[in-house]
Amino acid sequence: xxxxxxxxxxxxxxxxxxxxxxxxxxxxxxxxxxxxxxxxxxxxxxxxxxxxxxxxxxxxxxxxxxxxxxxxxxxxxxxxxxxxxxxxxxxxxxxxxxxxxxxxxxxxxxxxxxxxxxxxxxxxxxxxxxxxxxxxxxxxxxxxxxxxxxxxxxxxxxxxxxxxxxxxxxxxxxxxxxxxxxxxxxxxxxxxxxxxxxxxxxxxxxxxxxxxxxxxxxxxxxxxxxxxxxxxxxxxxxxxxxxxxxxxxxxxxxxxxxxxxxxxxxxxxxxxxxxxxxxxxxxxxxxxxxxxxxxxxxxxxxxxxxxxxxxxxxxxxxxxxxxxxxxxxxxxxxxxxxxxxxxxxxxxxxxxxxxxxxxxxxxxxxxxxxxxxxxxxxxxxxxxxxxxxxxxxxxxxxxxxxxxxxxxxxxxxxxxxxxxxxxxxxxxxxxxxxxxxxxxxxxxxxxxxxxxxxxxxxxxxxxxxxxxxxxxxxxxxxxxxxxxxxxxxxxxxxxxxxxxxxxxxxxxxxxxxxxxxxxxxxxxxxxxxxxxxxxxxxxxxxxxxxxxxxxxxxxxxxxxxxxxxxxxxxxxxxxxxxxxxxxxxxxxxxxxxxxxxxxxxxxxx
Length: 605
Hints:
Blueprint: E1 7-10, E2 21-24, E3 27-30, H1 32-39, H2 43-54, H3 58-71, H4 75-82, H5 87-98, H6 110-139, H7 143-160, H8 173-192, H9 195-207, H10 214-230, H11 253-269, H12 277-289, H13 293-302, H14 310-323, H15 327-337, H16 347-358, H17 364-378, H18 384-403, H19 408-428, H20 433-445, H21 449-463, H22 468-480, H23 484-496, H24 504-516, H25 520-541, H26 548-553, H27 557-570, H28 574-587, H29 592-604
Antiparallel strand pairs: 1-2, 2-3
Helix pairs in contact: 1-2, 2-3, 3-4, 3-6, 4-6, 5-6, 5-7, 6-7, 6-8, 7-8, 8-9, 9-10, 10-11, 11-12, 12-13, 13-14, 14-15, 15-16, 16-17, 16-18, 17-18, 18-19, 19-20, 20-21, 20-22, 21-22, 22-23, 22-24, 23-24, 24-25, 25-27, 27-28, 27-29, 28-29
C-alpha cells in the first residue's frame, strides 16, 4: 500500500536568496548538492539524490527536479529533465485511484483520506511537470509542441476525472494547474497560427467541467470574444454535440462574440467580476457593425450609475439613438450634455448635435449655433480636421435655414454664408468627397452650373465612380445645361457601375431625360421596368426601414405611377393615365401632385 506523501518546493530565507530547499514527506533537503550535480550535467545523480533524500518515486523526483531547474531559469535544462516523464504511464496508474466515486468528507476514513492524499500529490506533481514543460517549450518558441503538451495535460485530467474534478480538490494545487492549462492552451494555438484549433480550445474551456473560478472564466470569455471579432477567421457554429435543444446557437463569429460580451456584462451586474471598460468597448464595436445600436443603448442604460460618467453616458446613448435613426431622442440627450452646468464646450457632442440638426430644416438654426460653438472651441487647438467638420456642418445648417427663410434678402445672405462656410471647410478637408459633393449641390442650387459641374467631376474622380450620387449630380447639371444626350450617356455609365437594387434613382432620371428629349415611348418602357423594380424591392425589404442607405436606394412607387400617368396623359391615353392615377391614389390618398395631375387630366377630357 502506498504511503502518504506531501511534496513541495520551499524557497530560502530572504537574507539568503541563493539557498533553496525542497520539502517532501515531512523531510526537508537543501538543494545545494542537487544544483551542483545539475550544473555538472549529471541529471541521473541529481535525481537519485532527491529520491534517496525525500523518498520519492521516479516521476515525482523527475517532476521536482524539472521544477527546480525551471525556477532557476534554466529552461533548456528543465526541458531535458521533463522529457523523461512518461505522462501516459502515470495517468494509467492514477486513473483507478482517482476515478472511483469519491465518498463524502464526513464518511471518509483516515485510510481513505491517506489514499486520496497519495493520489492527489502524485497527480499534481506529474501534471504540474507537464505544464512547466509546456511553459518551457513556449519560452523556447516551440509553440506547436507546447500546445500539444498543454492539451495532453487537459486530456489527462479528463481521463482521471470523468465527472469533473471532485469538490475536495477544488482548492488544491492540482486545480490551479488545470486552470492555468485551460487558459493557456488557446493562447498557444493562436501564437502558433492554428486558429481553428484555438477556437476549439476556447469552446472546450468554456463548455467542459473544469470548475473554473469567475475571474478565469471571464478572462477566457473576453479573449475568445476578442479573437472572434478581430481574427478574420470564421469559426462556424459550435458542434452539435454541445448544443442543447431549445437553446440559442450563434450562427457566426459576430453573434457568438456579442453573446460572450453580454454574458460578461451580466456577470458584472451580478457582482461576480470587477468592471472592465474594454468589455463595453468591444461590445460597442460588435453591435455597431451589426447595426444594433438600440441593443447597445439598452446595455448602456442597464449599467449601474457611477460606472460611466453621466455626460459620457448621455453622449454614448445619443450616438446609439442617432445610429438607429431616432434623432429627436439623441438630440434631447445631447442638449442635456451641452447644458451650461454640464459640459457645453464638448466638441464631439457639439458636432453630433449640429449634424442631427442639419438634417431637419426646422432645427437648422439650432444646429448653426452648435456648429459655431464647435468652431470657437477648436481655436488654438491642433484640431484642423474638427474645424473643417464644424465648418462643413455649419454650411449645411445655413443652407437648410435659407430654404426656410421668408425674406429674399435673408435667404440670399444665408446662402452666401453657407457657401463661404463650405469653401472654408474645403481648406482643411481638400480630399473629402462628401464635402465636395455638397459644394456641387449648393452651386447647382444657385445656378452656378460650371462650378457645380467641376465639383461633380471631382467627386467622381475621388470616389472612382463607385458612388451613384456623383453620377446623378453630374447628369442633373448636364441636363440643366440642356445637354441631354451627354446626361444620358452619364446615366448609362452610372447604371453600368451600380448594382440592380441601387438603380432606381438613376432609372427615374433616365426616364425624365427621355421625356425631355420628346421620347415618351422609351420613357414609358423605363418606367415599367422601374415599377417592377419598386415592387420587387417592396417584397424584399418588407415594411421595416432601418437602414438610411437602403432607404435612399429604394424606388418610390408613388412617383413611378405618377410619372407614368403624366406620360400617358401627354400621349392622350386617358384610360391608361386614369389607371395609373388610381394606383398612385391607393398608395397615398391625399397627394397634392396626384390631385393636380388628376385635375389636369379631367380638364383635357
